[in-house]
Structure formats: C-alpha cells, structure tokens
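EI: anyone free to look at a 381-residue chain?
SC: sure, send it
EI:
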Amino acid sequence: MDYARFLPHMDVVWTEEGNEPGVTKDDILISKIRTFKMAAKYNTSIFTYTGGGRGGKLAMAEAMAFNRQNLGMVGGALAGYELPEEQRTYIRFYRDRFHDLYRDVQNRADVAVLHGFASMAYNSDLPWQSSMLFEQALIQAKVPFDIIFDEHLRDLSKYRVLVLPDQESMSDAQAALVREYVRRGGGLVATGHASLFTEERRRRRNFALADLFGIDAPAYAAGRAPERIVDSTPVRNELGKGRIVYIPQVQPAMEKPSNAAMTSQYWKLPLNWHELIDAVKWAAGGELSLDVQAPPHVTAELIDQKDRVLVHLLNYAAERGPVSGKIAVSVAIPQGRKVGAAHLVSPDHPVESLQVAMRGNRAQFAAPRLDTYGVAVLELQ
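SC: here you go
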C-alpha cells in the first residue's frame, strides 16, 4: 500500500492488523506504534480494538500515548456492558483528562526513518526487515522518532538524524536532497544497500550516496545471486556540518525465510541494536531530546503542548508486574524556559509530585513508579 497517497485523505483509518501490545515469552515487544506514527505524520487517527476481549489497559494506554485523540474501539457489540472495571477506569481517565493531556499536542521527534515507496514496493524483503528492526531498536531505546515518506525529504529541518534502513531504491533527486540535508548539519545513518538502486530499481555501479558513506558498494553479484553485504565495520564520516554513519547490516536476532512477511514474530531486537542507537546518537551530534533509563520493555513518547512538556511512559510487560525501581528521565526544555510544577498522572494511581532538577536546558527527574501507563507533566515557565 502507498501510505503516503492514502493517509493524507483520511481522517480516521481502521486497522485489523492484530499486533496486540505486550511482550512475548521470547521477549519480543509487540506494538502498533509504527501504525500510529505513520498515521500521525498526516494528522490521521487510527481506529482499532483496545478494550473488551481483544484489548485491555495496555492497548488503551498505547492509543492514549501514540494515537491522536482516539481511544479506539473498546470492544465488540455488547462489550460496553461487560467491560472489566480496570478498563472502565482507563476510559474515565481518558474522558476526564482529554482536554488536559490529549488536545493540541505535537510529538517531538529527533529522528526520521524513511519508508521510501520504491524501496518498500519493489523489494518486500530486506527493506522491510531492516526498517522494522531499526524501528524496534528506536522504540525499545526510547528514542523519539517519526516514520516519514518520500515527500518529506524536501523538508527535514525538524529532524536531527535521518535513517535509511536499506532504503535501496532512490532517485538522483532524492539523493541530492539527503546530501544537502547533511551538508547543512543533519545527521545520517544508513544501512546495507541504501541508495544502491535507482527509483526504478536498476542497480547502480555504486551507492548514490557513496560520497557520504565513505565506502563503496560491494561488487555486483551476477545472475540470481543475492546482493553481497559490505565487508566492513561501521564507517563514520563528516560532510559540511553533518555527520554520517554507514552500517553494513541490521543484524536480525531471528532468521526469517526470505519469502515470509516481516510479521511481529520476527521483531526481536537486532543483535547490533546498541550499535544502531550509538550511531544515531553520534550522528545527532549531542544528547537527544529524551533519555529514559528503563528496561527495554518500557517505551516513551515525547509530546509538546503550549507551556508544557509531556513524557508518556508505557510498561509493555505489565502482565509480569510493575517496573522495579525508579525511572530516570532527562528531557530537553525549550530555550529560555524552565520547569515550574511537575507531576506524574496515571489511571493506575493518584497524582504524584515530581522533583525536577535543571541542568542547563535539560530537566531531570525520576518517575517513582510505572504500573502500566503514566504521563509526566512538566509545566513550563
């Protein structure tokens, strides 16, 4: 599906994708975060099951944090009469806090992950695998990111880093836009065969962005042989004011048959996920807007409101119990502002005050608890 042609013309989109949130016995974090982020890029809302027998507190929490003004369908035809009290508590929280926490919001993203149409349409294997695994690393490392499409390459000014996870099919014009973004100070992280093919998926002799990567493409594999992987460690380079990291491969932790869809059973954190996140941080040239010290099954979403900063925290392993210990959070505050009052709100417990320390333009605090879902609210002065 060409999401970039479909989503802008919709107010609400229904999804039957499944991917009910949680953590599997194999420690794979399952979520609809990608779907919510693709829709949010076009100010579109997602409608999906969040309550009754096909949902629960975590599904509602995920919609509150990542969806836009839409709690979803809280059950089947008669589920509204049979909802467990804990789900009713979440619905009341959303209703009572709607104007306070969920209206007039804008997520803040340091990183943009490109889903190029040609790459994702002409090769249903490696671009999908690398994109979803790189996104999984960003999700579980609590890095604020957006999923973007070809049209957004024309203006990347709001992002500090662009990620090209095996986005192999790019036009010369698109490569020029990426090059100019880097020259002006943007960061770039590219993996595998990024820019090796034209927009018509004709193989180039070399990467279109070889001058940025600081390395050449592998020799052409004739016939039906698969494309080779560059035999190299990650390469760091600089051009103009920008920083670039080329990583030869997003290394899957689970083998996926080449003809199999990249479904959630394969979403296990890639083997080199630390390497991917380190590359993003280096390319950004400094601290990211949000740093959350919490287990990998905790996710976060950074939201700006007028005179407020919100940090949504979700425990995807809530069925195993609350997060053990405090969660340390450091968040960048807009220039010239400081934090006044701060508190943690949640449908799981009463409001709790937060003690905030300012370190330059960063607010630091510790969330004292996280059962399933909480929102740290920082009031700006």
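EI: The domain at 290-380 is CATH 2.60.40.1180 (Immunoglobulin-like).
SC: 👍
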